[in-house]
Design brief:
Elements: H1 17-22, H2 24-39, H3 47-67, H4 77-99, H5 101-104, H6 106-111, H7 118-121, H8 123-145, H9 156-180, H10 184-197, H11 210-217, H12 220-233, H13 240-264, H14 268-271
Helix pairs in contact: 2-8, 3-4, 4-8, 4-9, 4-10, 4-12, 9-12, 9-13, 12-13
């Protein structure tokens, strides 16, 4: 009988993809449990997935379009804003759930051996379910308002994958930091709130003053939001450098987040 020796990850070791693949069933079980727990005791169930962004979009239409008169690229404000919220909710849904996942599963983390990285990554499962439901409602809005997205919509899976990688990379880092520093619980919601208003979700990027445009151009969410808007509501094609950066940066963030998580994992059982 072969003997298996469990050792802590090395100080500068990389994540073991083979171990993650062998334990993929754990990823599915965590994700399925997350979906079940979220909607088990709700009267309206999955309706909240559509109702929350819809109400947010209505508020944004009132504040940014009716009051502030900010442009939405010549498209109906509701459709334009809901498209931005589709990408934003996927991003902002993954990070806080991943951040607290290790602490909320402290008993398993400290007593059972499995790749700890699967715990924060499992939240992607439920976020994708929410994303798909919201996408169906966005299609209904496109039909209702007579907006034809064109062939660019076929690239939506690519932009979606990049959003998931970007958010997952950040989520891995915040999850690892939360084990050691509970202050992260206060910092992450603040930063997400800041990014919500500092990203072109409720208004066209063309309305941003030139003196602030550099700040927006350095925001990876700006690139991805523009690509979602280009795919769904026929906004101008982003510059080539943004398209390239929107693929390279999320991959780099995810790999970097996985490496940081792997290095910090050594002390999880003692600290959590």
């Amino acid at each position: 009988m072969a003997k298996i020796v469990i050792t802590p990850p090395g100080r500068f070791s990389l994540p073991k993809v083979a171990d993650l693949w062998e334990a993929r069933e754990v990823l599915y079980r965590f994700g399925a449990r997350d979906v079940t727990l979220r909607y088990r005791q709700t009267a309206m169930g999955v309706v909240w997935v559509v109702l929350q962004p819809l109400l947010t979009a209505l508020v944004f239409v009132l504040v940014f379009h009716k009051v502030a008169h900010l442009p939405t690229g010549g498209q109906p404000p509701m459709v334009f804003i809901f498209t931005g919220l589709l990408a934003w909710n996927l991003f902002s849904g993954i990070i806080p759930r991943a951040q607290g996942s290790l602490v909320s599963n402290r008993d398993l983390v400290s007593k059972v051996f499995f790749p700890r990285m699967l715990v924060p990554l499992a939240v992607v499962y439920s976020c994708i379910v929410d994303f798909l439901v919201s996408t169906v409602f966005l299609i209904v809005l496109l039909v209702a308002y007579g907006v034809n997205p064109g062939f660019a919509v076929l690239l939506t899976p690519l932009w979606t994958l990049m959003v998931i990688l970007l958010a997952s990379g950040v989520g891995l880092v915040t999850a690892a930091l939360t084990v050691r520093y509970r202050d992260v619980n206060y910092f992450v919601p603040f930063m997400l709130q800041f990014l919500l208003y500092a990203s072109p979700i409720a208004y066209s990027i063309a309305s941003v003053p030139s003196k602030w445009r550099v700040v927006y151009d350095l925001n990876p969410l700006t690139w991805l939001l523009q690509e979602f808007q280009w795919s769904f509501v026929r906004q101008p094609l982003p510059p080539l450098w943004e398209i390239v950066a929107s693929i390279v940066v999320p991959i780099a963030v995810f790999v970097g987040g996985a490496i940081i998580f792997e290095q910090m994992e050594r002390g999880f059982a003692d600290l959590i």
